[in-house]
Amino acid sequence: MSTVDFGRTAADYARHRAGFPPSLLDRLAGFGIGTPGQAVLDLGTGTGSLARLFALRGAAVTGLDPAAPLLEQARLLDRAAGVEVTYVVGAAERTGLPDAAFDVVSAGQCWHWFRAAEAAAEAGRLLRPGGRIVIAHFDWLPLPGSVVEATERLILAHNPAWSLAGGTGLHPRWLTDLRTAGFTGVETFSYDVDVPYTHEDWAGRIRASAGVAASLPPAGVERFSAALRQTLTDDFPTDPLLIPHRVWAVVAHREGRAA
Question: Other C-beta atoms within 10 Å of 247: how many?
Answer without folding.
Answer: 19
